[in-house]
Each structure stands twice: as C-alpha cells, then as structure tokens.
Amino acid sequence: MFARTPRLTLRPGWAEDAPALAKAIAFPEVAFCLARLPWPYGEAEAAAFLAMPTPPRELRLLILAHEGGARPRLVGGIGIHAGESAPELGYWLTPDAWGRGYATEAGRAVIGMARHALGLRRLESGHFIDNPASGRVQAKLGFRPLGRVVSRHCLALGQDKPCALSALDLAESDPAPMLIAA
C-alpha cells in the first residue's frame, strides 16, 4: 500500500532504500525509544529488515517528506504489526524531522488504511514513558490511554523499560472517507 499526504509519501521499503534507512534510523535517541530495533544499526540490518515479508493485515511503510518541491527524503517509518491483544501502530522519525507534525500526518493516513483497506476495528499503541512526545502523537490521533504501564524490552538498550499503553476504537472514531485509487 501507498499513501500520499500534503507533505509525505508513505510506501513500502525497497532493497535500494537500505543506505537511507540506516542513515535515518541509526541514532541512539531513536533506537532507545523503540522496542525491536537492534543496536548498532547499519546497512546490513536495514537490508535484512527491508527483505522481510510483510504478513497479511500488517503494514511496514517508509515515510518520505517532500515539502516545498524538494526531492523526497526518507525521514521515518510507520506500520501496523501484530500485538498481544490487538494490532499495534508503531512509528519513528529521524531526529531532524521531530516537531514538524510528520508522525501525526503519517499516523492519520495509516489509521485510514487500517480502517478502510485492512478492515481493522481496533488499534493499540504504546510509548516508553521517557518519550512523552510519542504519547502526544497518539493523543492527537485519538488514542486513549488504557491506564496501564507495562514492562517492554528495548532491544537496543538490552533492558526492560516502562511503556504506557493506549488504544483507538476504529469503529467509534471519526470514519472520515479515504480517497483510494486502484
């Protein structure tokens, strides 16, 4: 699946994206906010990630910014993966893309895909409590805190960290129509 928003293109990653992916994600401040990212992270890890098949009813998309007519630049990733009790939304941005609203813009597009293309009824998400900016993104997207903090492993740090959980009921939230082209 692909999506285009006013400032972003969301698309699957391709093998030739490995150098740009490694360059965008290989920052400690990114890795230590993600559960499943190995550290250190280089082109070999990026190539292995990009070669993994995406299971049905899941998404793995790169976020490319194309503001102001500039050539598209890989600034992050977003996806839906299997969670413990519901599919989970996950995302990351390279540090120089923080604070621009990209995660919220990409999240809205992916929520539309989840609702209209994947037929999902509920999404969950979580953020390590030392990353409150991610919690603010989830709130802007309509996720509601579940009132639970669980321990999740951070592969990059090699330790467990407290993670606040939230959920979005896609059947109850704003079902804005999604423009889809075939």
What does this 3D model show about the protein?
- The protein has helices spanning 18-25, 28-31, 43-51, 102-116, 132-140, and strands at residues 3-4, 8-11, 59-65, 73-81, 88-93, 122-128, 144-154, 159-169.
- By secondary structure, it is α+β, with helices and mostly antiparallel strands.
- The strands form 2 sheets. A 5-stranded antiparallel β-sheet has the order 1-2-3-4-5, sandwiched between helices.
- A hairpin with a 4-residue loop joins strand 7 (144-154) and strand 8 (159-169).
- Helix 1 (18-25) packs across helix 3.
- The longest helix has 15 residues, at 102-116.
- The protein is globular, with a radius of gyration of 16 Å.
- It starts with a strand and ends in a 13-residue tail after the last strand.
- The relative contact order is 0.17.
- The model has no long low-confidence stretch (mean pLDDT 92).
Summarize the structure.
With 182 residues, this protein is an alpha+beta fold. It is built from five helices and eight strands, in the order ββαααβββαβαββ.
